From TrEMBL:
Source organism per UniProt: Kibdelosporangium phytohabitans
Enzyme nomenclature, EC number: 1.2.1.3
Keyword Methyltransferase: no
GO molecular function: aldehyde dehydrogenase (NAD+) activity
Listed InterPro entries: Ald_DH/histidinol_DH, Ald_DH_C, Ald_DH_CS_GLU, Ald_DH_N, Aldehyde_DH_dom, ALDH7A1-like
Residues in Aldehyde dehydrogenase domain copies: 15-484
Subunit structure: Homotetramer.
UniProt name for this protein: aldehyde dehydrogenase (NAD(+))
Active-site annotation: 248
Family listed: Belongs to the aldehyde dehydrogenase family.
Pfam families per record: Aldedh (PF00171)
Domain of life: Bacteria
Keywords: NAD, Oxidoreductase
Length: 511
């Protein structure tokens, strides 16, 4: 039984939830005792009690905790990766990469404990000095999705803890076992009780508890990774309490393929970003916007590559496995209902769920055991189609055409998301014009829309987020506040803008 953990002790309330292996629905990975709103508030109270003492630990010493966590994760890499694959159906190669991203994040931030720099600033008055300092925000409540059950949480938890904050972490309930395993590694890396509290709850209880905790002044920062719809509600809630949350939301990520592109390379990128993790990444490819002169050839090659790709049980060498959970399978079936008569479907031997009656050629394993779905390439997508405008979380990629690069950029921006984007071209001018015009927070040139590195800012604009960024030094602005100090050692009161010496020039001088 997995339960909410506050100050190192379990908190037993609420109903039970079963986290099930989506590639084998008979395999119950964990039974989770869900908590109610009171647990969110209690966890924040615990964090408030523990935070000041943790913040008093010198930042370089907090960096030692981050270093220890990285070593523990590396030592447990295969075990944690296997658990991620079992619980959410991510192919094992991707799961290993996800765990490695935690290690990379720790490797980066362990040194930031020695680089939480402020500045000394010259004053406009004599015998006075100005300083700036980074100080922790206090208690951060972090709510994460389950498609990246350990890597994305590390983007929040590692820098938040390094900066001297306490954290309340609410992971997705369908990835609770992976979250608990990661939390155990954090606690065993030397973190004091109460500094990280794990809350296992459903969405509504979390929102209600967060509302209570914010009203009580117990939460100083909210981080959320999930859908744009829920993110807007959290943003509204935080705004009522004059807080700016860190929101990493959905995407409808475009890939532009120019007339001079390397088509084989573009197909490789589209295949990975469109169907890796069964299209269940926030950075998954949404629509390929391909120049009309190479459209037919691109679709032919993309269709052939997708049909040849192996789907199936995720513990082997497959491109993608099952959908994460039943609720995502239900949603994906709704998206398939958006296919219209003007669309042409490519990519597989069928659409919908893969079964013995609706087989996919070359499937690895027994499809009836899990939530496996055919990949869909949808050609003929129009700019007013729902499938063009809205995120379709699952293995579905749209294709449309353009004539001029300006038209391609307009199409790429039209859905209003702004997370990731990509252009395939051999002309540098196209690459730079695309970067200037696209509204996405991340741009790839001759690379897929998916893929992040621990030292590069990650985040989006528009429906994809509020401009906050994760990873690299940029995330430090989410978990610290700038504090300024002026120190006057003149022995008298010097008033800014008033007691300032003046330089008097001879403005009438001429050579």
């Amino acid at each position: 039984m997995l339960e909410t953990t506050i100050e190192g002790k379990t908190w037993s309330t609420g109903a039970d939830y079963q986290s099930v292996n989506p590639s084998d629905l008979d395999d119950v990975v964990a039974t989770v005792r869900l908590a109610g709103p009171d647990a969110v508030r209690a966890a924040a109270e615990s964090g408030r009690r523990a935070q000041r003492e943790w913040a008093a630990v010198p930042a370089p010493v907090r960096g030692q905790f981050v270093a220890a966590l990285g070593r523990l994760v590396a030592a447990n890499k295969e075990t944690l990766a296997q658990l991620v694959t079992r619980e959410i159906g991510k192919p094992i190669a991707e799961a290993r990469g996800e765990v490695q991203e935690i290690v990379d994040t720790c490797d980066f931030f362990l040194g930031e404990g020695r680089r939480l720099y402020g500045q000394t600033v010259p004053s406009e008055m004599p015998d006075k000095q100005l300083f700036t300092f980074r100080v922790p925000v206090g208690v951060a409540t972090i709510i994460t999705a389950g498609n990246f059950p350990v890597a994305v949480p590390s983007w929040y938890l590692v820098p938040a803890l390094l900066c001297g904050n306490a954290v309340v972490w609410k992971p997705a309930e369908y990835a609770a076992a992976s979250a608990k395993a990661f939390a155990d590694l954090i606690w065993h890396a030397g973190l004091p009780d109460g500094v990280l509290n794990l809350v296992l709850a459903d969405g509504q209880s979390t929102f209600d508890g967060l509302e209570q905790a914010l009203a009580a002044g117990l939460v100083d920062k909210v981080g959320f990774t999930g859908s744009s719809a829920v993110g807007s509600k959290i943003g509204e809630l935080c705004g009522r309490h004059l807080q700016s949350p860190c929101l990493e939301l959905g995407g409808k990520n475009p890939m532009v393929v120019t007339e001079d592109a390397d088509l084989d390379l573009a197909v490789e990128g589209a295949l990975f970003s469109g169907f890796g993790t069964a299209g269940q990444r926030c950075t998954s490819l949404g629509t390929v916007i391909v120049h009309e002169s190479v459209h037919d050839e691109f679709v032919r090659r993309f269709d052939a590559a997708t049909r040849a790709a192996t789907a199936g049980k995720p513990d082997g060498e497959v491109l993608f496995g099952p959908l994460l959970d039943r609720k995502f399978a239900d949603s994906y079936e709704q998206y398939l209902g958006w296919i219209g008569e003007h669309h042409t479907v490519y990519g597989s031997t069928g659409t919908g769920r893969i079964t013995s009656d609706n087989p996919r050629e070359g499937f690895a394993g027994e499809p009836s055991k899990g939530l496996f779905y055919h990949p869909v390439i949808l050609d003929g997508v129009r700019p007013d189609d729902r499938v063009f405008l809205e995120e379709t979380f699952g293995p579905l990629v749209g294709v449309t055409t353009y004539r001029t690069l300006d038209e391609a950029i307009e199409l790429a921006n039209k859905p209003g998301y702004g997370l990731s984007s990509s252009i395939y071209t051999t002309d540098p001018a196209n690459a730079f014009r695309f970067r200037q015009g696209i509204g996405a927070g991340m741009v790839s040139v001759n690379n897929s829309t998916s893929g992040a590195e621990a030292h590069l800012p990650f985040g989006g604009n528009g429906k994809s987020g509020n401009g906050s960024r994760q990873s690299g030094v940029w995330v430090l602005d989410q978990f610290t506040r700038w504090q300024s100090m002026n120190w006057d050692f003149s022995g008298k009161l010097q008033k800014a803008q008033m007691d300032v010496a003046e330089i008097v020039p001879d403005v009438d001088f001429r050579l």
